[in-house]
Amino acid sequence: KFESTVHRAMEDKKQSVYSNTNGVPYSNGKNLHMEVGRGDLANRIITVGAESRALIISSFLDSTPSFTFTRSSRGFTTYSGYYKGVFVSIVAIGMGPSMMDFFVRESRAVVDGPMAIIRFGTCGGITTSSSEGSIVVASDGSGFIVRNPSYFAYNYDDNSKSDDATKVLAPYLFHKVAPADKNLSNVVEIELRKLIDHHRVVKGLNVTAESFYSSQGRIDDAFDDCN
């Protein structure tokens, strides 16, 4: 059983004017994209990409009290309830850093006190130290790769074809690694090793990209990605 608070654009008539448009916008006490307000989210959150994965994880929540379910018109799905008596939330946010930015900022805006957020997803790897099916705890932090639009200006700007500055630009920018929270990473690793074969739990570095295709080095003859 769960209480449904599904919000869709055609079903939930919002105020015509949002409040706090220079910060996190609100309407009817809910933030704009996740459509959650104070009390709707826990301080402990598991975030995933796919709504189907959030549904599976939500099946582990306590049956009582009933948990809440919110599907926003902007692609966010939130389950909030109790796991062994502890208030937790599971949020499906889709893919990419833009959706993560929406999620982190709008969650922080409606939750008081410290927060613990764990992203649970799937990804490819470029190392032989972990096999397929391993669970990698990003204890070494996370890097970030973005496509450099200025490098590709020669496709649409005649001046860039002979611009020496453009020629020396890199097609992709590699940013410095952001460190992980050591305490949270250690707890995640220890608890995972209790539940599954400890050989399947490894520590490593996560590198995220702004794009599933170009910034991750995939080859597509239909696009000029310089991969």
Describe this entry's structure for a reader.
The chain has 227 residues and is an alpha/beta fold. It contains four helices and 13 strands. β2 and β3 (30-31) form a beta hairpin. The radius of gyration is 21 Å and the shape is globular. The termini are far apart.
**Secondary structure tally, helices:** 4
Largest sheet: 6 strands, mixed
Structural class, by secondary structure, is alpha/beta
Shape: globular
Would you tell me the overall average pLDDT?
87
Major sheet strand order: 1-5-6-7-4-8
| DSSP E strands, number | 13
Distance between the termini: 49 Å
* Poorly predicted ranges: 7-13
One letter per element, helices H and strands E, the order comes to EEEEHEEEHEEEHEHEE
Task: State the share of residues found in helices, binned by percent.
Answer: 10-25%
What is the rounded Rg? 21 Å
Record keyword descriptors for this entry:
3-stranded mixed β-sheet, 26% strand, 227 residues, alpha/beta, globular, 6-stranded mixed β-sheet, 18% helix
Topology:
Elements: E1 2-4, E2 26-27, E3 30-31, E4 44-48, H1 51-58, E5 67-71, E6 77-83, E7 86-92, H2 97-110, E8 116-119, E9 135-137, E10 142-147, H3 164-167, E11 172-178, H4 182-195, E12 201-203, E13 206-209
Task: Quickly describe the structure.
By secondary structure, this protein is an alpha/beta fold. It has helices at 51-58, 97-110, 164-167, 182-195, and strands spanning 2-4, 26-27, 30-31, 44-48, 67-71, 77-83, 86-92, 116-119, 135-137, 142-147, 172-178, 201-203, 206-209.
